UniProtKB/TrEMBL annotation:
Protein name from the UniProt record: Fumarylacetoacetate hydrolase family protein
Organism annotation: Bradyrhizobium aeschynomenes
GO MF, one annotated term: hydrolase activity
Domain of life: Bacteria
Origin organism lineage: Bacteria, Pseudomonadati, Pseudomonadota, Alphaproteobacteria, Hyphomicrobiales
Keyword annotations of the record: Hydrolase, Metal-binding
Length: 390
């Protein structure tokens, strides 16, 4: 069971920043865009039918502050009603804070992440051989790429050395080569929010959370704010073949985003993201506890570089996109037998947190046990049209 309160979810400075979210309103049978403020939760859908539309404003934070909106209630009551197994369907609950944005993710953006991907590839989904391979890769290339600029002359020299040692990998290519790995994480509108169940493919036996910062970007390529995300990953699927990336990444409820989107303003900027530490805690019903972290300051590619490699003359996003920045977290702590590493178990509670973004909390279940995703783009358009919002 997950207990959500404003104190356990909001950023350390509470609602003093410009916070936007989405709720489900049973009284109108549809989603609403809301501003979360000290004095409550305010529906601003009449001005901004979608979060995407708000993010298209020249100054989204100023636009949101200028809109008073309709007070829906207290954040505490909405949060308490959000977990699916205790929800009153006649009362509002919180949703993921993005809607029409395409859900994108950057991979292999940290040295330790790159190392683990090489291990996945060479272990071919077998966790028993991972530790020996990890030691071998460290011996060959080391594990500190934080000062190595991808695509630089030094990086290309390292690439040639690794090829000669038969240690080159497709993951090292996107880790230190000129082109970043950017893929589509999940379909538009499919992400789950704070308090929801997050999904694992029932056939996976080796998987892990990926605690990340998620940037929200307009159709013009402007980075307008940030939130937290869990890029749930199936290590055994992707380890068998990189061509199974879509099965490893995109399953029902496998994309968690929240709790709220914090728009950039005087209190919070992209430079704050660049210095941000993201913490991870996994607590199992078996008493197992895993703690980890990811420091954006150690990222190999600047967030603006990742955004520019996602949008531009060769690819447009008319409704904007949300971009997971990747993680340096490496899930190597043994959970069961020595050498077997970490994998999720049913009912694990995963908490991803950062002081300026709050806490994203989800319970892990098999994807076929999570709430089915039934409300897509067509349903959203029909809902907004019925309410005369578009």
């Amino acid at each position: 069971m997950i207990d959500l309160t404003p104190e356990s979810v909001l950023p350390d400075d509470g609602a003093s920043g410009t916070l936007v979210g989405r709720i489900w309103r049973p009284d109108v049978d549809g989603p609403a865009v809301v501003a979360v403020r000290d004095d409550g939760v305010f529906d601003v859908t009449s001005a901004f039918p979608t979060v995407s539309a708000l993010c298209e404003q020249d100054d989204p934070a100023a636009a949101l502050r200028a809109m008073k909106g309709e007070r829906i209630g207290d954040l505490a009551a909405i949060l308490a009603n959000t977990p699916p197994d205790r929800r009153d369907p006649a009362k509002p609950w919180l949703l993921a804070p993005v809607d029409l944005q395409v859900l994108k993710a950057a991979g292999v953006t940290f040295a330790i992440s790159m190392l683990e991907r090489v291990i996945e590839e060479r272990a071919r989904g077998n966790p028993a051989s991972a530790e020996a391979i990890r030691a071998e890769v460290v011996r060959l290339v080391g594990d500190d790429f934080s000062k190595l600029k991808p695509g630089s002359e030094q990086a290309m020299h390292l690439k040639q050395v690794l090829i000669e040692q038969n240690a080159w990998s497709q993951y090292l290519e996107v880790g230190i080569g000129p082109d970043a790995e950017v893929f589509t994480k999940a379909p538009t509108l499919s992400s789950v929010g704070v308090g929801m169940d997050a999904g694992l493919h029932p056939k996976s036996t080796w998987n892990n959370p990926e605690p990340e910062v998620v940037l929200v970007v307009s159709s013009r390529g402007a980075i307008v704010g940030a939130t937290l995300g869990n890029d749930v990953n199936l290590r055994d699927f992707e380890g068998r073949s990189a061509l199974l990336l879509s099965k490893a990444k995109d399953n029902n409820a496998s994309c968690a985003i929240g709790p709220l989107l914090r728009l950039f303003d005087k209190s919070f900027t992209l430079d704050d993201v660049r210095k941000m530490d993201v913490a991870l805690n996994v607590t199992g019903s078996d008493g197992f506890v895993l703690d980890g972290h990811s420091s954006i300051s150690k990222i190999s590619r600047d967030p603006t570089d990742l955004v520019s490699q996602t949008i531009g003359a060769v690819h447009q996003y008319p409704d904007g996109f949300a971009l997971f920045l990747g993680t340096m977290f490496a899930p190597v702590k043994d959970r069961d037998a020595p050498g077997q590493g970490f994998t999720h178990k049913r009912d694990d509670i995963v908490t991803i947190s950062a002081p300026q973004l709050g806490r994203l909390v989800n319970r892990m279940r098999n994807s076929d046990e999570c709430e089915p995703w039934t409300f897509g783009v067509g349903a959203l358009m029909r809902s907004l049209a019925r309410r005369k919002l578009i």
